[in-house]
Amino acid sequence: MLKLRGKRSTIFTAILLFVLLLVGVRMYLPYWVKDYVNAEIDKLESYEGGIEDIDLFLWRGAYQIEGLVLHKKDGGIDKPFVAANTIDLSVDWGALLQGAVVAEADLYGTDLNFAKTQTGQGEGWVKFVDALSPFEINRLEVHNGKMTYTDYTAEPNVYLFIENITAKITNLRHVTDKDNALPSTINISGQSIGDGDIRITGGVNILQDIPDFDVSFELKEAQLPAFNSYTRDFASLDFKEGEAGVFGELAIANGRVKGYVKPIVSDVNMVSIDQDQNPFNIIWESLTSFFIEVFENQEADQFAMRIPVEGNIDDPDEDWWSAFKSIFANAFKEAFSKEADGTINFWDALQDNTPESN
Fold this sequence. Notes:
- This protein is of the alpha+beta class and 358 residues long.
- The chain is built from seven helices and 15 strands.
- It folds into two domains: 1-176, no CATH class; 224-358, no CATH class.
- It has a 15-stranded mixed sheet that branches.
């Protein structure tokens, strides 16, 4: 009887020690993960920062990074390059049923701030993102994101942004549709400066050195005066009224791109003595306004062009002669539609890589 009690006591003690060990590991693990993530941030050469906290959710195989902030060390701007309220990393249970052990990531309240001196180039961000998760990321979603571009060298400063960004990229690790040339799907939406609606959709193969993709994009119903800081710096133009849209398609195969960009402006009113009292600017804006008025589609009240893009992704060629001729096509034939044409696909770019086409 005493031996039985002693054996039970030993088993109870072992279970208690095991439970205490699990509790200790659970209590220490967030601090270890936090130190690990901050150590990965310290490996970045040109950026510095850290995270505020780590929350673990072992029951669903997940952890959350709270308060990520990365600043450029030298020559950056006051705003961080990257800031995120919450990054949720968890096991992709749907992919696990397919026999793949991969992760999914959800980013909440994410800000990306670019400038001429703050582009993020050369830092190996893919390697950094992969280091945040013990498994390769298969699904990525962004909730309530924002992206800005500021040029402090311009006078006045150029400031552009896209806010309310929602993005979803699935099947990044090709868990399904392995034989599809573009197995991953992209769906991005947001709101630009000037209250324009942005949408990007398509497919991608991100596992290549230069990802292959086929996307269509659109910016609709953006108010032109909101872009005055940019148009003033780029072309010495101010808009008093008007609406802008940009539509297009791009396909990339083996580093070569094929596609087009179709900007459309309508209801344009440009010259305003109240906005600009420089006589040379007023003359230039008057000439530009006259050109737009003459070569717009009168029925649709829109000025547009279609710019073909083709060539190596590092230095693509824009066919400006075709773009210039397209102004007349929009003006004197049928007005260009305010949507993607649906004339470009991945196979167009792939055929441009065949020996016969080179």
